[in-house]
Design goal:
By secondary structure, the chain is mainly alpha-helical. It is built from nine helices and no strands. Bound molecules: heme C.
């Protein structure tokens, strides 16, 4: 093999490794089925209201055991970059990177074992991209830019 062929072979090998390692996590492929299985009992279309309607009558919805609606792509991304910046990340985080080490209060819904919760958290992290717990007034332009949430 001459140098040129060698570098083409190397590029092909490296290229294919990068594609496998960086498998794209998408809403339609990974997150929608996960939300349907783990979140829709309380955040589904039938019973859960829009975010602002929930906030307006919070006690009523809490008494019914319902959260706000998150069962579509448009509803779910509301809780990532804007306007409810970082809400999904704060609630699902396992606490390992936070100040007090406490997981977010939705973390437990990610699975029935720690192994399952970690696996599903990794999917959410891969989907969101830049996993920042910050709010709108704290987040940087670079961190916002890192939020991918592919459909
Ligand atoms: C057993 C019911 C239940 C399940 C299951 C559940 N949630 Fe929740 N969730 C709630 C309720 C009720 C609230 C509102 C009270 C609160 O803020 O904790 C809430 C609040 C939230 C919020 C905060 C929104 C905001 O900014 O006010 C997020 C984000 C969230 N849930 C995400 C999820 C995700 C993702 C899942 C699935 C992995 C999930 N939840 C599973 C009941 C549930």
């Amino acid at each position: 093999m001459n140098i040129r062929t060698t570098s083409i072979v190397a590029a092909l090998v490296l290229g294919s490794v990068a594609i496998v390692a960086g498998e794209e996590i998408t809403y339609s492929g990974h997150i929608a089925p996960l939300v349907a299985a783990k979140c829709s009992a309380c955040h589904g279309a039938e019973a859960a209201p829009e975010y602002h309607a929930f906030k307006k009558e919070k006690d009523k919805w809490l008494a019914k055991g319902q959260g706000m609606r998150m069962d579509s792509y448009s509803h779910l991304i509301f809780y990532t970059a804007w306007p409810d910046t970082g809400a999904l990340m704060r609630r699902l985080d396992d606490g390992k990177n936070g100040k007090d080490g406490k997981p977010g209060n939705m973390y437990r819904h990610l699975g029935s074992s720690e192994e399952e919760r970690q696996k599903n958290l990794a999917l959410f992290k891969g989907w969101v991209g830049s996993w920042s717990l910050k709010r709108w007034n704290e987040i940087s332009r670079e961190e916002l830019d890192g939020i991918k949430v592919r459909y």
